[in-house]
Design brief:
4-stranded antiparallel β-sheet; globular; 31% helix; 23% strand; 171 residues
Length: 171
């Protein structure tokens, strides 16, 4: 059975949308996932599941709502899709993994032309946008673009997290 990363959107940021990782594991196991491994406290897990990614995302979102009264977005990427995200990184010159983010999207990336985000850099991939921050994600021009309506169903992970999820998905 294939391994997949399950990414929750906007959890454990301040006081709202709190979820403990043991509760997250229980929800995942309740929808039929096995070999569940969570990563950090920010809504990341890698699981084995017979479900297709879209079906798994819907099942996890429904279970989070019904069992924990938590209404958050859920995105799923297969191990192969994570490999593609890493292989397609357009910014290999970024050496600090905290300065490179992958913004995972539900659908195709919006057109980014015409958005001046300098000194940051952005590039669209397959249901992902790569962001190389020049100094910080806080108050950056790129962060303002990524906070727009076109990105309402997205969730971002820094490169260290992307690589860790890829490694867990390969295990």
């Amino acid at each position: 059975m294939p391994r997949s990363a399950v990414l929750l959107r906007a959890v454990n940021l301040g006081a709202r949308n709190r979820i403990a990782m043991p509760a997250f594991r229980t929800v995942l196991e309740g929808v039929g996932c096995t070999d569940v491994a969570t990563y950090l406290q920010s809504g990341n897990a890698v699981v084995t599941s017979r479900r297709a990614p879209a079906s798994l995302a819907k099942a996890v979102a429904a279970a989070l709502r019904s069992e924990l009264d938590l209404a958050v977005g859920v995105l799923v990427r297969t191990a192969a899709e994570l490999d593609q995200v890493v292989a397609a990184n357009p910014f290999p010159d970024v050496t600090d993994p905290k300065m490179l983010h992958a913004v995972f999207l539900e659908t195709a990336a919006p057109d980014l032309t015409g958005h001046d985000v300098a000194p940051d850099r952005v590039a669209a991939g397959d249901r992902v946008v790569y962001v190389a921050y020049a100094t910080s994600s806080q108050d950056s021009r790129a962060a303002k673009v990524l906070g727009g309506k076109a990105f309402s169903g997205s969730t971002a992970r820094n490169w260290r997290t992307v690589l860790a999820l890829q490694e867990l998905a390969r295990a």
